[in-house]
Amino acid sequence: MLRTVRNQRGQFVIEGVLLMIVMVSIFIASMKTLREGKYLANMIERPWAEVSGMLECGSWGSPATACKNHPNQSQRSVSLKP
């Protein structure tokens, strides 16, 4: 009886170590994929282009196109005759 309990404990430890190795290797592989693919950077940069256009020029879009749409950039003309 005592030997079977020890064998079960040993098997539990071995399975625990193997599970930890598998989990750590999956974590390392997923982190490597995320870094190389730059998924997080794309999730932040793409919306930021639209927001930066609104912050800089007051119009939604990338800053280069949004500044052209700002009312301050249009040609001014006076409609009143002196």
Descriptive report:
By secondary structure, the chain is mainly alpha-helical. 76% of the residues lie in helices and 0% in strands. It has three helices and no strands. The chain starts with a helix and ends in a 13-residue tail after the last helix.
Index terms:
82 residues, mainly alpha
Secondary structure blueprint with pairings:
Elements: H1 2-37, H2 39-57, H3 63-69
**How many domains would you count in the coordinates?**
2
- Could you give the order of the helices and strands? HHH
Counted by DSSP, the helix tally is 3
Mean pLDDT, rounded to whole units?
Answer: 81
* N-end to C-end Cα span: 110 Å
| Number of beta-strand segments | 0
Note poorly predicted spans. none
Output the radius of gyration: 31 Å
Q: What is the 3D form?
A: rod-shaped
Query: How much of the sequence is in beta strands?
Result: under 5%
State the gist of this model.
The protein has 82 residues and is mainly α.
